[in-house]
Amino acid sequence: MIEEILIRDLGVISEAKLEFGPGLTVLTGETGAGKTMVLNALGLLLGERSDSSAIRKGQEQAFVEGRWLLADSAMKRIRELGIELDDQELLVNRSVSAEGRSRAALSGKSVPVGILSEIGDQLVVVHGQSDQIRLRSATAQREALDQFAGDALAKVLSEYAIVFANWKQSSSRLVELTTQLEARSREADQIRSAVEELTALDPKPGEDVELSEKASKLTHLEELRIAATESHNQLSSEGFDDSSDAITLIGKARRALEAVSEHDPELASLAEQLKEIGYSLNETSASISGYLASLDGDGSQELERVQQRRADLTSAMRKYGPSLEDVVSFLENSGARLLDLDSSDKEIQELTVQEESLGKQALALAITITDLRTKAAAELAKSVTAELAALAMTGASLEVTITPASELGLHGADQVAILLSAYPGAEPRALGKGASGGELSRIMLAIEVVLAKSELAPTFIFDEVDAGVGGAAATEVGKRLATLAQNAQVIVVTHLPQVAAFATRHLRVLKSVSDQYTATDVVRLEGEAVVEELARMLSGLSESESGKTHAKELLELAKASI
User: Fold this and answer.
1) What's the pTM value of the predicted model, to 2 decimals?
2) With the CA atoms of 443, 449, 455 and 458 taken in that order, what torsion angle do they form, in degrees rounded to the nearest 10?
């Protein structure tokens, strides 16, 4: 419930404090007095878009503060924001600067403006003149019916939303896998063929480098043999001529030193070094001899085999490379990829079963939703029709139709339409067609009064919901608003004295004009002041005795009707 609103430097309002309370509060005043600014102030507190042009001329900012007394249902979100309240009293602040900057706070804690909208949805339901078209859309009509149906339908809708989302997800995945099935099967066949090829080839890491070295050796085989033979002959000649090889020469040198080494230890040491050199040359000669032996045989056949192997590896690298290590890695990882590709068939089978099951669940829940909506539709139509009769529209009736949709949707399988028959025998037509402005206002009010029984918000604000209504119908509008106010706080902006007469609290917006400025104030009317305001609304003359008499009659009628 809104307890109080403080407005400063907003439009024509320099400063005003509006005190509200339970029941029906009416806001009256001359056209252009500033009633709209009061609603704009409420809108700012509820997170509506700010407009710097609304700031009072000559001022740097506009400021609005509201004090709410919260119900338990609204406290949860407040606590989630880390705001601690005393006695469930919430202060909402909003400021708008001339530069267009807007700031918001909840009980002293700065919050994004969007939070105000979120909180406001739980606190207030606003119905302006433009909101009369709210129920003309198919979506709004479905939401209105679902709201009227209450918790029973809400529970099923919540369950359906989960099942429907899972069903759509399974269907999407199934379509994806089915679409890719041919491509995945083709990839699996390619991998199997590659694995068969590479398994037969059996490549080894670094094998290409080893084969390259071996091919170079076999290509220059004769040159290598000649060089090794020459080197071997120079180290250890096997001829019978007088020429001396390196080993023989080293041996002669060693023996020459050994012959006199007893006379000089230094020579003995040198002779020992020559001995070691001789041993080393013998080992090298033996190694060269072994190398020459390894060169024996048909090198051309071996070279052909090596070159073929290199060609086979090069081909594999072109297909699965670019390097031999990549080829080996591909072969090692192919098993895991095949397992992944082959598992899609199993996943498709599982998803097919899952999708079918979820589809059946969604359909069953949709049927339940349709049944609940059908029952609620009859009750809503009956209740609103009764309200229309109370609003001086006897003979008018409401019809709520439920027709099957082409397919299951996020909210079930129903198309909801609210139709009006303006008089007995008239063809039911869509809301907003075939009704006058005054009739449309009453129709919307009747629907809102009925729906209010299931609204979560404790406060309702109506901006000239009685537009286009007069006479006895206006009195009935006031009576229905008063009835609504028995269970909720209701704030109404009205020009009709028949409506204002039912007020629990009457606030008047007053505008004063001087050469220097225009200012608006808001005052609470009581006793004779209420009578004078009603007289003004009736006749334009607040001091008219006949007007006052009529005003008192209205007040007595309103009091007797509640």
Assistant:
1) 0.60
2) 130
